[in-house]
Design brief:
Helix content is 28%, strand content 22%. It contains 13 helices and 16 strands. The strands form four sheets. The chain has a ten-stranded mixed β-sheet with strand order 3-2-1-4-7-9-8-11-12-10, with helices on both faces. A two-stranded antiparallel sheet has the order 5-6. β5 and β6 form a beta hairpin. α1 crosses α13. The longest helix is centred in the C-terminal third of the chain and has 18 residues. It is globular and about 65 Å long. About 2% of the residues have low confidence.
């Protein structure tokens, strides 16, 4: 089977592309990266420096015509986490239009307007998507499932913590795959027992095996139109009906809690540390040490808000410095810069306590060393990229499994 052609949306610095191209089974034919809040398009600059400018778009995706996007086998992207509610129906439109600027609806628009929509979807988001918003737990995910159902796709999803499969960072993300009705996978899923798909036969189960226990299994239907779902789904319930794994086909949800089945080699924080060439400004000065210790420590104290309101504040201690014999904590976008912080990583080395370097942050996401190094890109910006990125190894494993299942059926 030939390589599958890929549209990469919300490309960032290219994590999806790296993961898919490492399998040697995919070829990105068009990509888009646009950061609405900045004048200088730093992520797009890095993307173009690594992969070239050909077929790369640095425009607001909501303004790119579907006709200007080439046909491809698969659409991939880690789209921003926003409020996905449905604003309105528009007369004479092909369905429902969500809130302006919410980028899920840009994916929806492209899929609905393309004459030959991609047969497969491979999307990623933060795992709280399955539980948001707090007033209607699970509503946002239900809207996505239903909107994809109306466009002719079945969906399987799984929350994957990269460290539970031996990768160097504890990073939990929900990955979901869409299969168009025209594909052999869709037909296979239609005939499969849903429990068997989630545990064994599905693409995600083949990429990331689970153990035999399935907990909190449930089935339910999503039959309302999108506006009704937006207004009424799971209203005032405390718990989302979506577990960390599931499938959705023809309006029917099967969901269950799965547990990772992995006993292979594990990469830990000390494995990614640079042995030399660490600039002096990454080391913590003695003068700053008490601030770091305070921020990382436990607290029970009275605080006063700007409006004068006094309240009791408490939080537990964090491991300080970070444990070297475990996978790292999740990288966040504020990881860069010298200022003391509760959430930045600090490691003990023979030369003293220090923050993580951009190369170490890249390694925690399984990017090549210095992937984000470019003239005009600060270390803090490089850290920001990694706080937004995904773990490349997760994409590679899912990409390989998806290709293998497709080729076995065609």
């Amino acid at each position: 089977m030939k390589k599958l052609s890929v549209l990469e949306l919300f490309a960032g610095v290219g994590g999806f592309r790296l993961g898919l191209e490492q399998t040697q089974k995919y070829e990105v034919v068009w990509s888009n990266q646009w950061e609405p809040s900045t004048k200088t398009q730093h992520a797009s600059m890095v993307y173009e420096a690594r992969f070239g400018t050909e077929n790369h778009s640095n425009k607001d995706i909501s303004e790119v015509a579907a006709a200007d996007i080439p046909d491809a086998d698969i659409l991939v992207g880690g789209f921003p986490c926003q409020d996905y509610s449905v604003a309105t129906t528009l007369q004479n439109s092909k369905g429902l239009i969500g809130k302006k600027g919410v980028l899920w609806w840009s994916i929806h628009r492209i899929l609905s307007e393309k004459k030959n929509p991609p047969k497969y979807l491979f999307l990623e988001n933060v795992d709280r998507l399955l539980k948001s918003p707090s007033s209607q737990r699970g509503r946002d995910f239900a809207i996505m499932l239903k909107s994809l159902d109306e466009l002719g796709y079945a969906v399987e999803w799984r929350v994957i913590n990269a460290s539970e499969y031996g990768m160097p960072q504890r990073r939990r993300r929900v990955f979901f795959l869409g299969y168009h009705t025209s594909t052999p996978i869709y037909k296979k899923l239609m005939k499969a027992a849903t429990t068997d798909w989630v545990q064994n036969k599905g693409v995600l189960a083949q990429a990331f095996p689970v153990n035999e226990n399935l907990e909190k299994q449930q089935c339910f239907s999503i039959e309302e139109d999108l506006v009704s779902l937006s207004n009424n789904f799971n209203k005032d319930e405390k718990i989302s009906p979506f577990e960390n794994s599931g499938v959705f086909i023809k309006g029917k949800v099967f969901t269950a809690k799965t547990f990772p089945g992995f006993d292979g080699k594990r990469t830990v924080l000390k494995d990614v540390l640079q042995k030399q060439d660490v600039p002096a400004d990454f080391y913590i000065s003695e003068a700053d040490f008490p601030k770091w210790e305070y921020l990382k420590g436990s607290k029970k104290e009275q605080r006063t808000a700007k409006n004068g309101y006094t309240y009791n504040y408490s939080e537990g201690a964090m491991i300080f410095p970070d444990a070297l014999d475990n996978a790292s904590r999740t990288i966040i976008t504020g990881e860069g810069g010298k200022s003391p912080s509760r959430f930045k990583h600090v490691v003990q080395t023979k030369n003293g306590l220090r923050r993580l370097t951009p190369v170490e942050l890249e390694r925690l996401n399984m990017f090549p060393d210095n992937h984000t190094q470019l003239e005009g890109i600060s270390n803090a910006k490089r850290a920001f990229f990694m706080g937004n990125a995904l773990v490349v190894g997760v994409v590679e494993k899912i990409g390989s499994a998806l290709y293998n299942v497709i080729s076995s059926l065609e």
